[in-house]
Design brief:
Length: 553
Amino acid sequence: MKLSPLQTARYQYSPKLPGMLRNGIAEISVKEGEATQSVADQEKIKALFPNTYGKKEIVFEKGANTSEAKKQVVGVILSGGQAPGGHNVICGLYDALKATDKENVLYGFKNGPSGLLDDDYLIFDDEYIDAYRNTGGFDIIGSGRTKLESEDQFAVAAEVCKKHGITAIVIIGGDDSNTNAAVLAEYFAAHNTGVQVIGCPKTIDGDLKNEDIECSFGFDTATKTYSEVIGNIERDANSAKKYWHFVKVMGRSASHVALECALETQPNVCLISEEVAAKKMSLSQIADYIADSVEKRAANGMNFGVAIIPEGVVEFVPEFSALIKEINELLAGSKTEEFNALPTWKDKYAFIEKGLTPESMAVFAILPETIQQQLFLERDPHGNVQVSLIESEKLFSALVKNKLDERKAAGTYNGKFSALHHFFGYEGRCAFPSNFDADYCYSLGYNAFMLIQYGYNGYLSKVSNLSKPAEEWVAGGMPITKMMNMERRNGEDKPVIKKALVDLEGKPFKYFEAHRDEWAVETAFTYPGAIQYYGPAEVCDLTTRTLALEKGE
């Protein structure tokens, strides 16, 4: 396989570690902190996790290593969607494992948690690992979305671990994957299997964060990748001066990606789903909000602009959420077959009109026909509308056009409006990791092995103080149960890691809020450019604007 010059160079990059992890394995000691409790529903979570609840947070520091010397056979799993840096988590885990004892072994279970259940694996060696250092993607062993949540699955996992003499499993994933890690850790502890479970915080959405987890890995690279292209689009818009670009970015349940890209590029408009929900904004109000920017810029002779739309924003619009719930009910059971059997869209429309309340039908009627039809595409496994399939960037540009036509008819608007549409999602999930993500992920993996070596179970690998140079990062661990609460899932109350939505009182949003009125009218675009891997640290090791603002920098 022919390698690109960048790929060849990245193989040679040596990721930076937190200072206390650079001392050498023999000089890493552990300091325990206070006992923890879950973020909510303490009694219920404690009852579900009697063996792993309430454990202490820990920090690694310089000192004599007092861990038990024994051979470690570790299994690693990539779970969920890809995020830049996943390969480096495995590389860091492997390097720490081998630095402790050359006889230690690392199993990679293929294609996600199903690899553990199917006993489908490979055993890593230096040659195999070296081909994936500092690269994007999850192709080192593949990923998958199989959930580990049933007693039968746990029993199979325990048998596979016993067969290979596995002492620990590392699960690299997002909130759902690490919820599964916590449940698996509890099962292993309750059944005295001797197998530890450690999680690593991954998701480009940025919603796996709290007072302990400052940033999930992959967020830095993905948002820099999207911001580069948004900046390119802004420059093109400012050159051609004739298009409004509607850019949808990933982030189903939270708007961290959209907010970071807005802070990086200063577009004319950026919707924040959490604000839409807090203000109970209607589709019409959102369309008017965007149309106001279009109108004001047109009055200054600027018939162009850029609007950033979070992927899941429509779910946060109360009237749209109500519409989706009614559609889910309308097509429950055999009614889906009845609907699909109707020969024309006109017949289907009549079926819909008959089944919806007048309020929801009024919302449905203002949607462009293409969006109406997207609401009735293939259902998810639970029979619900797949909101991620809705082209919300096209929805809002169409609604804005309608608003502008009304204003033109009323004589209040005399500009030109031509829209172009973009969706940036998969482009960022497997990008070459930035130096930050390469360093952070390697540290998470290295740190995960130290948690294993010191005997911790049901912990998340934690690296903090991330806005500072890597030398000042702090490595340690926290019980996964600390992040958990009870939520209603598919008709049942289940323990899950609480998603972190954009904090409307937080410094990143407040900065955006203070500047967006100016950005809406002026051409205040900024152009971040491509991710830089070599050069001054202030350019190459630059953290996200979100993290810098949160830390007051």
